[in-house]
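Ligand-bound model needed. nicotinamide-adenine-dinucleotide.
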Amino acid sequence: MGIFDELARKDHEQIVFCQDEVTGLKAIIAIHDTTLGPALGGARMWQYADEEDAVRDVLRLSRGMTYKSAAAGLNLGGGKAVILGDAKSLKSEMLFRVYGRFVQGLGGRYITAEDVNTTVRDMEWVRMETDHVVGLDRALGGSGDPSPVTALGTYEGIKASLKWTTGNESLAGRTVAVQGVGAVGFHLVGHLRRGGARVHVSDIDADHLVRAVQAYPGIEVVPANEIYGVPCDVFAPCALGAIINDDTVPQLRTSIVCGSANNILAEEDRHCQALADKGILYAPDYVVNAGGLINVANELEGYNQDRALKQAQGIHDITTQIFRLAREERIPTIKAANALAERRIAAVGRIKDTFTGTAARGRRS
Ligand code: NAD
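Prediction:
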């Protein structure tokens, strides 16, 4: 792998390799684009097959963060870190403090947070060495659990999708199938029920199903492999990625796919088109699940949940803008989301260049 070729291919700015023999830290920080602001993204701990695999993943994830922040209207760029190794055996206070020192060394170009296999507690250690960390506990002035804000944003995406397809965003009398009633799915079901929807849920964790049924009487549980075929107005995937694929598209009996899961489409362009061919509207996942990012980004100005919830409501309007762009330009909705993000970055880059003379970096797209 030619590292510079890899960076150039998707226009990444910087990659930082961090190593400390004593703690066993091997981390890679990727900064994709800082036109809009400092690159924010979590630090994932993962046992990669090899180092190339880790580089590829961190480049892909950091670029995803650029698009997510830009589409959400945040003044943040895209970044991500991966810490290579087994979270169970490798974690220690000193490892995270060393990682924090590397983050501090970037002088605020990258802001870290928790991600897969890292926790709020790990970030407390990181915070001992750097100012550039978010995703801390509420008791420490942090933003705490992001899932209520993510669920609200997804709910707003659902309402915008209903409004777009039917002219009426009310959930009253609608049917929604929710795959996964974990942290986000649970709160989403609450919004849907309060809105008057009939709700079908599936989960592979019996305790999560029991919790949901007890909290929201009247919801209907369906077996995990039957959720795709439930006749409904909205299918809301809130569990795993890649669940819109060649097997599931033919089973769907919905008009809308809108859920919180990341990377819902197995193949972005092809499966977005497959949904469109069936007359199903796809609300881009990284747009409607941006509530979690909005929540954590709020820490930068002093956390205020009311403000985070208010900002997450803006996902309604952003989702509608994307549908409009998709219709005007006759492109799949996922492409419209990407275009919206790229155009915002280009426009902000231009005003920074033109009106302040600061070293904002224009994009080529
Ligand atoms: P979670 O782990 O709390 O919940 C996921 C749920 O899905 C669990 O209850 C799990 O048992 C269930 N599940 C797993 N496989 C399943 C299957 N095959 N069928 C049905 N259910 C299944 O995770 P979460 O925090 O609620 O996140 C849900 C999704 O949203 C994930 O894809 C996550 O990446 C994404 N997301 C979450 C946030 C957030 O704020 N938590 C933000 C953005 C995106």
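The chain has two domains: 3-64+78-133, 147-291+318-339.
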